[in-house]
Specification:
The protein is mostly helical. The protein is 54% helix and 6% strand. The protein has 2 domains: 6-194 and 314-356, 3-Layer(aba) Sandwich (Rossmann fold), CATH 3.40.50; 206-310, Orthogonal Bundle (Tyrosyl-Transfer RNA Synthetase). The protein has 16 helices and 5 strands. The strands form 2 sheets. Strands 1-2-3 form a 3-stranded parallel beta sheet. It has a two-stranded parallel ribbon with strand order 4-5. The radius of gyration is 24 Å and the shape is elongated. The protein binds adenosine-5'-triphosphate and magnesium ion.
């Protein structure tokens, strides 16, 4: 079996990408891409998955494909090194899902904690689309189709990776060693596992409208930071403040580097000193927010500038996606063919089967 190191990951085109995506997965992908340690990299725009809970809003999905692609390129994903592709253009993925469905029980799907909370969030309780309910299976198809060994994603994807591994084990035990068990690669930085929204809600999410987008203008970013949720009991500057659950500090955990202090806030040596002062009292939110704004603008400015360049030639972006999709489709087709041979549903290629059946009927 191949020992290639392969990455598969992606995003749903339900909106522009935000800084939660960036710290949770996108930044890591770019680093992995540039490390040269991977043989193949597949980055998927998961439009078919996005349709599982946006069936009545296909235009939203269609419009956002280009937005996600622009965000990818502006963050440094390089089409010469990474295949950027569109999920729905690879029918092999549906075929794989269809066979994997036989390896998973309804009760197993019902136990998936991410799907459970997403069902609640979308008020789907009494009307869950079957496609949405089964999307962890389709995600297993996406990952295994490319024989991915490494899946860099945020924490909410842990249950999906568990589900995928179970399907791989079950498939391999029933039909023989065919599929590869992937490893999840979570961010090392705890604050990046699940970046909260600017409103303090547990997760920054396109669907919750509490995001700082990678494509936001400098002014928008500043406005969002200045009105960010902090410690509601920290009213006057003298009041002692709380760090836990305070978005501004979570974002500083995610974005600030030691050198930012010398540059923008030289009266503090590091983040811990700033946190200590806030906890003691005597440090106002505005000062911390201004610092966070400097830190985040520094990270986002080059991304914004690259986006403006890519926006000048949109047909070329579709071209990049088309080429990436062709390469991805070839790989998925190879895997599907191996899967069908393992399942022995490759009748026309199976000379032994044809011969045995012929003998049974006395043909010679
Ligand atoms: P939707 O609301 O449509 O589900 P989303 O904002 O949750 O959108 P996805 O496309 O589902 O985004 O997620 C894409 C990737 O980004 C996944 O790897 C996911 O783990 C990661 N991710 C999404 N939101 C965050 C976040 N707030 N913090 C860290 N990682 C995140
Ligand atoms: Mg999501």
């Amino acid at each position: 079996m191949s020992k290639e190191k392969i990455i598969l990951t992606g995003d749903r085109p339900t909106g522009k990408l935000h800084v939660g995506h960036y710290v949770g997965s996108l930044k890591r992908r770019v680093e992995l891409q540039n490390s040269g340690n991977f043989d193949k990299i597949f980055i998927m725009i998961a439009d078919a998955q996005a349709l599982t809970d946006n069936a009545d809003n296909p235009e939203k999905v269609r419009q956002n494909i280009i937005e996600v692609a622009l965000d990818y390129l502006s963050c440094g994903l390089d089409p010469a090194k990474s295949n950027l592709f569109i999920q729905s253009q690879i029918p092999e993925l549906c075929e794989l899902s269809f066979y994997y469905m036989n390896l998973v029980t309804v009760s197993r799907l019902q136990r998936n904690p991410t799907v459970k909370s997403e069902i609640q969030m979308r008020n789907f309780e009494t009307s869950i689309p079957v496609g949405f309910f089964t999307y962890p299976i389709s995600q297993a198809a996406d990952i295994t189709a490319f024989k991915a060994t490494t899946v860099p994603v945020g924490e909410d994807q842990l249950p999906m990776l568990e589900q995928t591994k179970e399907i791989v084990r079950k498939f391999n035990s029933v039909y023989g060693e065919t599929l590869i068990e992937p490893d999840i690669l979570l961010p090392d930085n705890k604050a990046c596992l699940r970046l909260p929204g600017t409103d303090g809600k547990a997760k920054m999410s396109k669907s919750l409208g509490n995001c700082i987008y990678l494509s936001d203008t400098e002014k928008d970013v500043k406005t969002k930071i200045m009105s960010m949720y902090t410690d509601p009991n920290h009213i006057r500057v003298e009041d002692p403040g709380q760090i836990e659950g305070n978005c501004v500090f979570t974002y500083l955990d995610a974005f600030s580097k030691p050198e930012h202090f010398a540059e923008y806030l030289p009266e503090y040596g590091n983040l811990q000193e700033l946190k200590d002062h806030y906890t003691r009292g005597g440090l106002g939110d505005v000062k911390v927010k201004k610092f966070l704004n400097n830190v985040m603008q520094e990270e986002l400015a080059p991304i914004r500038a690259r986006r403006a360049e890519y926006e000048k030639d949109i047909p070329e972006i579709y071209n990049i996606l088309k080429k990436g999709t062709e390469v991805a489709r070839q790989k998925a087709a190879e895997t599907l063919s191996e899967v069908k041979s393992a399942m022995k549903i490759n009748y026309f290629d199976d000379a032994e089967l044809i011969k045995a059946q012929a003998e049974k009927y006395g043909n010679n």
